[in-house]
Structures are given as C-alpha cells and as structure tokens.
Design goal:
nine-stranded mixed beta sheet, 180 residues, elongated, two-stranded antiparallel ribbon, alpha+beta, single chain
C-alpha cells in the first residue's frame, strides 16, 4: 500500500516539475559562428555551401545523381551576389574549369531553368551567342570561368558530355531550446 502512494506521489512530483518549466524551441538559419561544426566536403562561400568535384568527370545525369547521394543539388545560381561570390572563389583558388550546373531546358526546349527549383536562368550569365542549342542537342548548362580570359559565363552543352560538377547543399538550420 505504501508503495502505491509513493508511486502516485512520485508521478505528481514529476508532473509538477515538468509543468514548472516552459520549453521554448528556437530554429535559426545557418550555423552559428561560435560553434565548431565541420561542413566538409562542402566549402562555405558567403551564404552557401558548395562541393567542387574537380577529379572526376561525369555526364549531367550522373552528376545530378552524385549530388543527390550527398543530399545536395547541382548548382543553381539564383542571385547576382551568388554569381559574383562564386566567380571570386573560383578565381582566388584558380579552379577555373567547366562544371555542370542544374540548368536545363529539357522541360521545354529554349526555356532554360534551374532544375533544382524551376526558376528561370538570368540572361546576363550566358556567354556570347549562348544558349545556341548547337545541332539541337544542347540541353544542359555548364558553368565556366576561364583562366586565360576575363570573366565567366554559362553555356549549353549536350547532357551526355563529361564535365566536372558543383553540388550545392541545402542551408543548414540550428535548433536550440530555452528552458524557463
């Protein structure tokens, strides 16, 4: 009998402690600067996290699949700031080369979008006379920063072509709790 009363009192005690405190969840974008979190193999460039595959060349479909296996997407350049910062990074580390992006017009020929989010590609990023859909076979978009020339651009290319590629990770979120 005593054990029953003790268990009941213990339950009420735990319940009162739980009700005495309030939990406030806080979810923020990105990783706080004061934490020691490794983001490898992705590198942080301004607000984004990118993986540059510089050793293996794949066709667009294989590159897309490789990014997905890393829980990422092929690169989508959505803002002028992202374009500028990506170019600065590639120039600083001298890794100019052709890289697959998520850009494609496979959904509707002539209407190039970022496959990852279906947003139209900014016309200012295209190289001279691009996109040209040469031989009516170029439906995937590559990024290029030329070491010997000034600037960078994107170009349409046959999806079966072998290129390096850039994966873009989703923006991480940080969850924390305040107990009051």
């Amino acid at each position: 009998m005593f054990l029953k009363y003790a268990c009941i009192l213990e339950c009420f005690g735990l319940l009162s402690i739980c009700l005495a405190y309030k939990l406030y969840p806080i979810v923020t974008e990105d990783i706080p600067g004061n934490t020691n979190v490794t983001t490898g193999p992705f590198v942080r460039i301004t607000r984004g996290y990118y993986f540059f595959e510089m050793n293996v060349k794949k066709n667009w479909f294989e590159a897309y699949q490789s990014c997905h296996l890393m829980d990422a997407e092929l690169l989508s350049i959505e803002t002028e700031e992202e374009w500028r910062d990506l170019n600065a990074y590639v120039q600083e580390f001298n890794i100019g080369e052709f890289y697959w992006t998520s850009g494609t017009d496979q959904g509707k020929i002539g209407q190039h979008v970022w496959f990852a989010n279906n947003k139209p590609i900014d016309k200012a990023m295209w190289g001279p006379n691009q996109p040209d859909n040469a031989n009516k076979m170029e439906h995937c978009v590559e990024y290029n920063w030329a070491k010997s020339k000034t600037g960078s651009w994107i170009n349409d290319r046959p999806c079966e072509f072998q290129n390096r590629y850039i994966c873009e990770a989703r923006h991480p979120k940080t969850a924390s709790f305040v107990v009051w």
